Every structure is written in structure tokens, then in C-alpha cells.
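Re: that backbone. C-alpha cells:
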């Protein structure tokens, strides 16, 4: 949770606002999702289906079963599956927590694809029940592109609440029917146990679906996997996953709050494992097991997903290659000032330069200019609060922006989450200390289902202006028991090539919107 409040401070604030935590135990418990006693003679689909990283000709299909078996995928361009194609997928077993992924290829561009997944037993004697899903491949022509983004799922002790109709924001996003959804990080909260719930001052009760496997912070590979499975216990999440492709990136809570490579957890009594590198390795495996991202031999999360001539999406990983969180005031780009890291930054420059898409959507798991502290004198994100020339991690941003201006790379939209409120930021070189860039927009969204904070102050180095915030200064902490959960959409018009960015709340109410005309390259 990267915000001016720590989890402990937020919990204290929430409880002050709520009067007391719910003392009575929850009446509903999640059944264990790990395969135990196998019921029935054939493999079952246990957690629905997902698709992800969908291009014009390919898509990743994900599912999970209850025993060692082989994944089978059928797909068609008709919902009746009259012209189906059947693909034999990989074997799965306990080494993958019974999850499986298959990269479908040779798909038709710009089509709605219907798919279904079953698992066949190891003896090849039969397959069990099927689960169905659908996706839309990227077009090769200039038709409209429409997608959504947000972040932060099941944070600050808010789990799924069946009495409150589950994770409602997912249902609201599904209702607007985006071509795909960008999860901007904090796909789980591995370091946030799910307790019984809360009782608020107005008498409202938030009662979590509880699970013994989410009763502590995640340390083992099994516990990280369970954190992903917990989210899949929600009916809205499973329905969403079956109908909206998910393009996922990670942030800190897939491992723990504000982590960085090499961190030692000597003062956190919740952790028996004190080496965050060990935790991050297990968390990375769980992320690739449970998210429909393209398989990678080195488990690299940064990547691009082309979505036709109007749109290409660039995903960054601001966790794996950073230096330790520090005062962030280095005058030169030394290893302790790294954030993207040299290799990822070079890759991003090359990928942006090679892109022929009208709009380049740059997805960061942390905002560019919002001040995100990690203690009294150290910083968690790019910004350092001095409002002056670029220093520390800001040097990477300056290097990238300078490169983009020199190479004529325009029409970028930056999307992020992390800070648990929604905002629209315009970066203006005429108001900046560093001026070697073309103006651009950054849009912040989230949380999907977590505590709500903010707003945070902005560092002025790159001339940002908050054109809109979802929360006025001084707003009390909130959560999914209120409408203050947020997502955004981007619609690129096939005729005008203009992008319209819109913010929504938990229930799908439109909050703010802007149309951005494309600039000549």
C-alpha cells in the first residue's frame, strides 16, 4: 500500500471511523481451495477460466483443476461452438498448484472468440465438467478500441462479503463491456490477512468470507497461491474473468508492503522468513501460476501487448529492478537510484520507438509525481518532494521523456493505480523544472476492492497539475462498503483516433471524462 498512510495508521483511522471492528466471528467461511479429497471420477474446473495478453492472433487461456490432469481447450467464433477447434494443452499437477495455461494461436483478428476448458484425467479416460469464457481479439483495421483499468484487490482487511453482494466494482466494469482490462498491480494483498470484518458507526456490518489460509501474511509458496485463490472465491470476479481478458502487472502487495530487492524484515514479527528475496521468488511463481500473462522463461513481467493500429500497451515492472527505498536525491543515476533499471528502460525506449500504434498506453504500477513516502525520510515511488531539477529515480523519467521528445514519440497515455483514489494529471513542460518533454496525461484509478485514501500531494519537477481528484483533501478513509471504489476506461475512436478517458465509481456512475485528440507524429 503505497500512500501517506501505513496499513497500521489506516486501520486505526478506519476503526475510529467505524467505532469498532466486528467482534463476532463471520458466519460464512471459504472452503479450502487446495485439492484434498478428490470427489467424483473425473477432473473438475475449480476456479473458472481467464484469458489474458490477447493480441490480434493469440490469447493466453487459464484455468485450474482438482487433480493431476491435462488441459483441453476448445474455441469457436460462435457461441454454439458449431465450428470449434480443439487444442490439447499441458499437463498440470501439484507443482503448478493444479493451474494450467495455454497460448492459443492463429486466432482471427477482430473477432469475439468463445472458448471452453476441461481437464482430462492422466489415464486419458475422460474429461470432467467444462467452464466457458469469451474474449475479443485485437483488430487489424482502425475500428474502435475500448478498455478499462484499475488496481488494488482485497486490501486493508476487506475481503469478499457475500452479504454485500461481493466485489461490486468487478461487476460494474463487466457491465460496460470493455475489450480488455488492465490490472495495474496489487492483484492480491499477500501481507493483509482477511479477518471477520468491521462494524461501522452507522451500524453497517462488513462481514468477510474468511479462510484459514488467509489468516496470516503469506510466506510459503502455498500461502501466496492461496491469496490468489481467495479472490477467485468471489462470484463477480469469476464472472468478470470469464468475459473480460485480464492484462496483469504486479506492484508491492503481491509480496509485501513497499518491498524492494534485498530488503530484510528483521523488525516485522509477522514474518518468520526475513529475506524478502525469498518471498519475492515465491510470490513471482504464484503470480505466473494464477495470472493469465504470457509464459516467460525468466518470469519477466514487463512486456508489450499490441492491440491493433490504434493502440499498443506497455507494461512496466517497478519492483524487481529498483534500489532500496531511500531519500531519492542522488544527482546521478547510480544503482541505488534505479527504479526501472537500465535493461528495462532501454527495452521501453526501443519498444516505444518501434511501435506504429497511434496511442502508446504506458502502464506503471506506481505514479510519476505523487508523493508516496516509505517512512519519514525515504520515498517509495519516483518523486522525492523537492520540486526541483530531477534527482534520484526522477532521473530515469527525465531520460525517458527527453528520449521521447527527441524521437518524436507522442500520443502517450500513462495509466496507474497504487494510491487508492482516482485522479487525472496533466504534465506541462511550461510549468516544470525539467522541460525537455512534450505535454502528456497520467490517469490514476483504484481501488477495486480495498481501503480508500488520498489525495496525495504532487512533486512539481515535471509540471503536473491535478485536473481532477475523486476525493477532496481531508476526506476520511473509506472502503468497498461505500461507492468510493474506482475504475477508468479509455475509448479510442476508430474514425477520429481521439481517446476519451472516463472515471467511474464502484457502482458504475460516471465521475469525470476528457477527450484527447491525437497529436501529429
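Recovered sequence:
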Amino acid at each position: 500500500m503505497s500512500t501517506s498512510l501505513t496499513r497500521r495508521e489506516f486501520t486505526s483511522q478506519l476503526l475510529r471511523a467505524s467505532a469498532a471492528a466486528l467482534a463476532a466471528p463471520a458466519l460464512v467461511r471459504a472452503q479450502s481451495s487446495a485439492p484434498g479429497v478428490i470427489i467424483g471420477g473425473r477432473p473438475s474446473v475449480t476456479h473458472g477460466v481467464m484469458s489474458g495478453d490477447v493480441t490480434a492472433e493469440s490469447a493466453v487461456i487459464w484455468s485450474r483443476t482438482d487433480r493431476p490432469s491435462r488441459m483441453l481447450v476448445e474455441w469457436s467464433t460462435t457461441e454454439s461452438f458449431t465450428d470449434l477447434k480443439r487444442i490439447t494443452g499441458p499437463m498440470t499437477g501439484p507443482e503448478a498448484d493444479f493451474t494450467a495455461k495455454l497460448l492459443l494461436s492463429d486466432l482471427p483478428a477482430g473477432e469475439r472468440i468463445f472458448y471452453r476448458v476441461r481437464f482430462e484425467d492422466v489415464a486419458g479416460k475422460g474429461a470432467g465438467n467444462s467452464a466457458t469464457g469469451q474474449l475479443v481479439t485485437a483488430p487489424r483495421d482502425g475500428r474502435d478500441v475500448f478498455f478499462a483499468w484499475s488496481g488494488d484487490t482485497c486490501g486493508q482487511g476487506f475481503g469478499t462479503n457475500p452479504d454485500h453482494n461481493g466485489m461490486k466494482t468487478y461487476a460494474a466494469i463487466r457491465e460496460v463491456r470493455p475489450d480488455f482490462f488492465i490490472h495495474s498491480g496489487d492483484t492480491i494483498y499477500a501481507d493483509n490477512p482477511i479477518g471477520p470484518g468491521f462494524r461501522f458507526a452507522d451500524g453497517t456490518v462488513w462481514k468477510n468470507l474468511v479462510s484459514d489460509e488467509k489468516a496470516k501474511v503469506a510466506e510459503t509458496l502455498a500461502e501466496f497461491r492461496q491469496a490468489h485463490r481467495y479472490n477467485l472465491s468471489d462470484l463477480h470476479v469469476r464472472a468478470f474473468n470469464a468475459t473480460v481478458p485480464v492484462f496483469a502487472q504486479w506492484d508491492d502487495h503481491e509480496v509485501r508492503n513497499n518491498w524492494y530487492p534485498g530488503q530484510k524484515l528483521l523488525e516485522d514479527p509477522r514474518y518468520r522468513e526475513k529475506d524478502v528475496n525469498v518471498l519475492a521468488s515465491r510470490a513471482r511463481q504464484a503470480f505466473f501460476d494464477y495470472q493469465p500473462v504470457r509464459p516467460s522463461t525468466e518470469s519477466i513481467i514487463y512486456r508489450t501487448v499490441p492491440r491493433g493500429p490504434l493502440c499498443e500497451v506497455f507494461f512496466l515492472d517497478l519492483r524487481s529492478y529498483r534500489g532500496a527505498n531511500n531519500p531519492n536525491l542522488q544527482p546521478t543515476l547510480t544503482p541505488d537510484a534505479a527504479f526501472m533499471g537500465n535493461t528495462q528502460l532501454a527495452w521501453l525506449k526501443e519498444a516505444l520507438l518501434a511501435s506504429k500504434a497511434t496511442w502508446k498506453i504506458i502502464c506503471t504500477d506506481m505514479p510519476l509525481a505523487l508523493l508516496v513516502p516509505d517512512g519519514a525520510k525515504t520515498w517509495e515511488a519516483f518523486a522525492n518532494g523537492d520540486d526541483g531539477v530531477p534527482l534520484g529515480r526522477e532521473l530515469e523519467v527525465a531520460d525517458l521523456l527527453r528520449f521521447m521528445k527527441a524521437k518524436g514519440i507522442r500520443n502517450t497515455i500513462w495509466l496507474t493505480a497504487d494510491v487508492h483514489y482516482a485522479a487525472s494529471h496533466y504534465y506541462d513542460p511550461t510549468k516544470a523544472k525539467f522541460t525537455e518533454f512534450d505535454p502528456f496525461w497520467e490517469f490514476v484509478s483504484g481501488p477495486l476492492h480495498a481501503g480508500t485514501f488520498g489525495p496525495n500531494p504532487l512533486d512539481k519537477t515535471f509540471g503536473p497539475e491535478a485536473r481532477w481528484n475523486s476525493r477532496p483533501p481531508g476526506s476520511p478513509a473509506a472502503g468497498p462498503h461505500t461507492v468510493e471504489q474506482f475504475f477508468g476506461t479509455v475509448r479510442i475512436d476508430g474514425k477520429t483516433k481521439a481517446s476519451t478517458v472516463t472515471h467511474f465509481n464502484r457502482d458504475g456512475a460516471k465521475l469525470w471524462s476528457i477527450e484527447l485528440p491525437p497529436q501529429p507524429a
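DSSP finds seven helices and 23 strands in the chain. The radius of gyration is 22 Å.
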